[in-house]
Every structure is written in structure tokens, then in C-alpha cells.
Write a structure and sequence with these properties.
About 20% of the residues lie in helices and about 40% in strands. It contains seven helices and 16 strands.
Length: about 300
């Protein structure tokens, strides 16, 4: 889901944070509040079309192609691999309006598991040097022209080169709407990822995203680090970027020039081990499944073999 569209419609104005530095220790907070929800990437048309029409992906994952209508009637058409708690969102050039639909654009959504935690993240962001976190409501229209509150979200900035990250918390109105096909709460205040996603993943190989690697500009990384830290992830500096860990999914962000930006690889956990190694070429990308309970999807640099 594309956050910047909603921000633009809300008329939010913000500047880059640009000064955050990742540190090499554990989180300074007593509780992790944000967890990897999903990430997205924008690929060349050949790769996007190959993903959309892949028979193998329909067996591998709970795979969907859909057009979503969000705040203000903005729409985007994505290809989705849905797991138990996490998912992946894939676009072709032009599937999203404006800057978000350009080759190499990417994004990262982090969500709360308990109602009210997003407010704590907002307060933490100010401690991380983000004086004015940008808050907004994303809605979803199921086709009847009546928007349903979907989730509240926070950004550190509305200025970016090719990558943006946001924090989000699903709204009770969305869980209450039967068209969302969500599950009952497992505990008081449950707004978690497992409740949001269906159990259809059980009939496929893919269980969850365990790692993502995305190439981002130096400025986009600096604007993202405060959000990762405010969410309670452990963020450490590595050669050429940062690694953030917590909650089962590792996030690698590598610093590159804008022309080299984009999603690079995604690692998956499988529902069951497979004996053989299967390699599936999908456009300018390669999905390698097994042997064992893991899969790896690598993407060529901006559609170049």
C-alpha cells in the first residue's frame, strides 16, 4: 500500500530528517512496538508482468493481483504474496501514480500488534530527533464508494528519493467490517498482523518473509533509522548500510546512488521442508525454493540481467 499518496492528499508538508545515525547496540527501549508488516518494490514491466502471470507463484504462495482504492480515491495495482503475518507487494513501473511508481522505488511498512502502541511510537520519534512526525489516516473503499478507516500511520518525512518507511496501526472499524475477511482478536487490543491476514497461506509453501534487502539512498536511510529505533528494533551499522532485527524478520538497507536503488532480495520461511531445489526464473528475477524450509527471491538491478 502506498503511503505517500495519502500524505499528499492530506496536504502534509515535511522536511527530511537527514541526521539520524544507527548505533551498534541493542534497542534502548524496553519493548518492541513495531514489526515488519510488508515491503514493496517497483520493477520493470517485463518482470512485473511475469510475476502477475506466473503459475508457479500461485502454487508457491497465497498469491493475489488486485487494485486497491485508498484515501481520496487514489488507486494502485499490486501483486501480493501473503503469508501468516507478513507479505510482499510488487509493482511494475506506472502501477502507482507519481514518484512511487518509478523504477527502483520501494517501501517498508512496520505495524503494531497492540492497540495504542502507535501513540507510543510517535512519542519515541520525538526522542529520536523527529520533531514533527506526520500522522494520517489511510482508508479503503471496497467498491461501494464508502471509505472504511483502514489504519493510522506515521511518517518521519514526506520528502524522499526512492524509499519510504512508515509505522501503522490497523483500525477497529476495519476489523469490524466483514469485507475485510479478518479474524477475531486473540487477546484484548489485538490489532496484529496474523489477525489481519487470512489463513490461506496454509495451503501453499510460503509461510512468511524472514528477511528483506533493499538498496536506498543515504538520505532515505537517514530518514528511516529513527522510525526503526522508535519501534524498538535493534539497529546496527554495517559496511555500506544498516541491519535492523526484531520480531522474526531482518531488514537490510544498503546505501547506493538513486539509480541503483530498489528491492534486491527477499528470504522466506516455508510451511514445510522440500527435498529438492527448485529454481524459477520470473522476468529479471530468480526464485530459488529449497532444499529445506527456506526460499530466496533475488531481483536484478532495475531489470538489468
Amino acid at each position: 500500500m502506498i503511503i505517500v499518496l495519502a500524505v499528499a492528499l492530506a496536504g502534509a508538508i515535511g522536511g527530511g530528517v537527514g541526521t539520524a545515525q544507527a548505533e551498534g547496540g541493542r534497542s534502548s527501549y524496553d519493548r518492541q512496538l513495531l514489526f515488519y508488516n510488508h515491503s514493496y518494490g517497483v520493477f520493470d514491466r517485463e518482470t512485473a508482468d511475469a510475476i502477475e502471470h506466473s503459475d508457479y507463484l500461485r502454487d508457491f504462495a497465497n498469491f493475489q493481483v488486485r487494485t486497491t482504492t485508498g484515501t481520496g480515491g487514489q488507486t494502485w495495482t499490486g501483486r501480493y504474496l501473503m503469508g501468516r503475518e507478513t507479505y510482499l507487494e510488487l509493482f511494475g513501473v506506472g502501477d502507482v501514480a507519481g514518484q512511487d511508481g518509478t523504477l527502483g522505488s520501494a517501501g517498508l511498512g512496520l505495524s503494531t500488534e497492540r492497540a495504542g502502541d502507535l501513540a507510543t511510537v510517535t512519542a519515541r520519534l520525538k526522542d529520536e530527533g523527529v520533531a514533527d512526525p506526520i500522522e494520517f489516516l489511510q482508508t479503503r473503499d471496497f467498491g461501494d464508494g464508502v471509505p472504511v478507516p483502514w489504519f493510522d500511520a506515521i511518517l518521519t518525512t514526506t520528502e524522499y528519493d526512492a524509499f519510504g518507511a512508515w509505522a501503522m496501526e490497523y483500525r477497529p472499524e476495519y476489523f469490524a467490517d466483514p469485507r475485510g475477511n479478518t479474524e477475531p482478536p486473540s487477546y484484548p487490543g489485538d490489532v496484529g498482523r496474523e489477525r489481519y491476514l487470512s489463513d490461506d497461506y496454509r495451503t501453499h509453501l510460503m509461510r512468511d518473509v524472514t528477511s528483506v534487502r533493499i538498496a536506498v539512498t543515504e538520505g532515505d536511510l537517514a530518514d528511516t533509522v529513527p522510525l526503526l529505533r522508535a519501534g524498538g528494533l535493534t539497529v546496527r551499522t554495517v559496511a555500506g548500510g544498516v541491519v535492523a532485527k526484531g520480531g522474526g524478520t531482518t531488514i537490510h538497507l544498503d546505501v547506493v546512488p538513486r539509480e541503483n536503488a530498489g528491492m534486491q532480495r527477499v528470504d522466506f520461511a516455508l510451511n514445510r521442508p522440500v527435498t529438492d531445489r527448485h529454481v524459477e526464473q520470473i522476468g529479471h528475477s530468480t526464485l530459488t525454493v529449497g532444499p529445506g524450509s527456506r526460499a530466496l527471491w533475488t531481483f536484478a538491478h532495475n531489470g538489468t540481467p
